[in-house]
Specification:
The complex is a heterotrimer. Helices cover about 85% and strands about 0% of the residues of chain A. By secondary structure, chain A is mostly helical. Chain A starts with a helix and ends with a helix. Chain B has a domain at about 1-60 and about 140-155 and about 175-195: Rossmann fold, CATH 3.40.50. Chain B is built from five helices and eight strands; from the N terminus they run βββαββαααβαββ. In chain B, strand 6, helix 5 (about 155-165) and strand 7 form a beta-alpha-beta unit. The relative contact order of chain B is 0.22. The chains are: A mainly alpha, B alpha/beta, C mainly alpha. Chains A and C meet through helix 8 and helix 9 of A and helix 4 and helix 5 of C.
């Protein structure tokens, strides 16, 4: 129970920081809208549903990357990660709280992005929404983990997309599959499996990322 | 409380610490001195549990929750207020009667009136006072303090003196400083690191 | 680890030389021509055995990474890095031979429908990122930890990506679980086994060689420090 309280306290801190600084979420919203406009001109004519659903996922992935790149910036700039690591809570709580906060930003961005997509391109079905929900969990779990790794390096923000995209390939496969086929069960199941598998790996190994 | 034998630390090619032996009994007050770059900070980070030595052994009889570490960085969020920072740490350390303790510390270090201001608007000295509040918050058994007097004005330094005097008898201290005269009255031992 | 018996490096080098020569001889002179693709199909023996070897290297890298995290043994970190390095070399060879095979069989240098090839492209990107990560950190426990954790992600990624690539094919046309290549049997099997053994022994030799060199560097550094 105290684990949940720790996660709560840490996630509250992250949301509060975003509320103060107000830089991540507006940036994500603007970015995703701009990407749609760019895609409209990059795919001239009337692109098919198959093409635009691929586009949607590229947009979501890169918008998420924008938020993930910011996730550990407060800890990096003020060296506060040391403070959190020294605290007696389980270190995986740091990862979980940060993932939840990033998830909140991503979902907030998508609440705007999906209607926008429907307006600009094609209708969004229930399967797509389910796929978005499941993919978001995987993206935030793995992405936050890798974000913590990236801030420890000299290359910092440069490294996150390189670390993240190969791991995101299965997410894209599952998500695009779920949004285009008639019976998306298999793809949604695959996404859920991905989430579960990687969440467990991240949860178990985050300790080694932040502590020597 | 703390026993280290032949402690060594190396960052890649660079050796920062070499063959350090130290023994800090419960209730002791060890002052670490040495010129810049002699590895004071590295030694303290190892003792606080933030870094692992690359050679030798270290035994610490205090668990993570019983250590209070003050580093070069204040380890507080600049975009949060003093109160919010201490609330966060108070929750993570499961401080009992959190509000009262936070209020008492802020009062004592003269930050009560500025408690709702963001740390970004604080001066360096005020930030250091807040960092001290953070360290004292969970009443640690073992204090690991890296240059605690830095950035403090005379009034702040006297407040710290008073804290040290009050806690000296029942707590254990490991303190790094380049002006050991100030803490001379408290010290039970001295460790001089060579450059 | 130091006390267990290890085959001396010169013996390994000689045996890998002999094995690779034998494998070449088998592939070119013993294995029969493929009924459909003729002589050029022989690259299959190398492609498959190199792919298996690359997997073995990645698995070895992950195993050593796990050992590092478990035992905090800096030697395991080095071993893990060398394994992944060898894996990446063999992985690149898989992409090259696979590309040649694709050209021979289907007339294209690249084929998205070829599972192995796509999987190795993903893995290639993943392990290149591993090197970027490693070279962006200073040597020390943190670099060892982060590399180890990322290498462990690799072994989770391999089956997940494989499943994903199979799923992705279903989007375009139904997945048919057929096997390309000839039926195994007779000289084909023998040739394949020889080639596979040769590649594994070659990889192990290279691994030992690189690891030995790296360890020597470290000991030299320690020695210099003692003298200084």
């Amino acid at each position: 129970m105290s684990y949940v309280r720790d996660v709560g306290a840490l996630a509250r801190k992250d949301l509060l920081l975003e509320l103060r600084a107000r830089d991540t979420l507006p940036a994500m919203l603007l970015f995703v809208a701009a990407v749609f406009v760019v895609f409209h001109f990059a795919l001239p004519g009337t692109p098919s549903r198959l093409e635009t659903s691929g586009l949607l996922w590229v947009a979501i992935l890169f918008t998420a990357l924008l938020g993930l790149g910011r996730a550990f910036v407060p800890e990096r700039e003020q060296g506060t990660l040391d403070g959190l690591v020294l605290a007696p809570c389980d270190r995986s709580a740091i990862w979980l709280a940060k993932s939840l906060a990033t998830l909140a930003f991503l979902v907030a961005a998508e609440v705007v992005a999906l209607p926008l997509y429907a307006l600009f391109f094609h209708r969004v079905g229930g399967a797509t929404v389910a796929a978005v929900a499941l993919a978001d969990i995987g993206i935030c779990a793995v992405g936050t983990f890798l974000g913590a790794m990236a801030v420890a390096t000299r290359a910092r923000d440069l490294l996150l997309p390189l670390l993240f995209l190969p791991l995101a390939v299965p997410i894209v496969v599952g998500a695009v599959g779920a949004s285009v086929v008639v019976s998306p069960g298999r793809y949604l199941g695959f996404l859920a499996l991905y989430d579960l598998l990687f969440a467990v790996v991240c949860w178990a190994s985050f300790e080694y990322v932040v502590a020597e | 409380m703390l026993v280290a034998r032949r402690l060594g630390k190396r960052y890649g090619e660079k050796r920062v610490l070499r063959g350090i032996d130290l023994e800090l009994p419960r209730g002791g007050f060890l002052v670490v001195t040495g010129p810049n770059g002699s590895g004071k900070t590295t030694l303290l980070r190892i003792c606080a549990g933030l870094a692992q030595p690359t050679g030798g052994t270290i035994e610490r009889s205090a668990v993570r929750a019983q250590v209070g570490y003050l580093g070069h960085e204040p380890l507080v969020y600049r975009e949060l207020t003093a109160l919010e920072n201490l609330e966060l740490y108070g929750r993570l350390y499961r401080v009992v009667e959190r509000r009262e303790r936070i209020g008492m510390l802020l009062e004592r270090f003269g930050l009560w009136d500025a408690r709702h201001e963001r740390v970004a608007s604080y001066s360096r000295g005020m930030t250091q006072r807040l960092a001290l509040c953070r360290v004292l918050l969970h009443e640690p058994e073992l204090f690991v303090l890296d240059e605690p007097y830095s950035a403090l004005d005379e009034a702040g330094a006297e407040l710290l003196d008073a804290q040290l005097a009050e806690l000296r008898a029942e707590r254990t201290f490991l303190l790094a400083t380049h002006e050991p005269v100030r803490v001379e009255p408290f010290a039970s031992g001295r460790l001089a690191l060579a450059a | 680890m130091g006390r267990t018996f290890r085959i001396p490096l010169p013996a390994l080098a000689v045996s890998s030389l002999v094995l690779v020569t034998t494998a070449l001889a088998f592939v070119f002179f013993v294995a029969p021509d493929d009924a459909n693709q003729g002589f050029s199909q022989r690259i299959f023996y190398f492609h498959v055995s190199i792919a298996i070897t690359a997997y073995a290297c990645f698995a070895g890298g992950a195993w050593n990474a796990f050992r590092h995290l478990w035992k905090r043994d800096p030697r395991a970190d080095l071993a893990s890095y060398v394994c992944v390095h060898q894996g990446l070399i063999f992985g690149t060879l898989v992409l090259l031979t696979g590309s040649i095979w694709a050209k021979i069989s289907w007339g294209h240098w690249w084929l998205w429908s070829e599972d192995q090839l796509v999987l190795f492209l993903v893995l290639f990107l993943f392990y290149c990122a591993y090197f970027m990560l490693r070279f962006s950190l200073d040597p020390g426990p943190q670099r060892a930890n982060l590399s180890a954790v990322y290498a462990l992600f690799g072994v989770v990624l391999i089956p997940v990506s494989f499943a994903a690539i199979r799923l992705a094919k279903g989007l375009i046309h139904p997945v048919l679980f057929t096997r390309h290549g000839p039926n195994f049997g007779g000289w084909i099997l023998v040739t394949y086994c020889v080639a596979q053994t040769a590649m594994l022994v070659l990889a192990y030799t290279l691994y030992r060689l690189e690891l030995g060199g790296k360890r020597l560097d470290l000991r030299l550094r320690d020695l210099r420090e003692v003298l200084a």
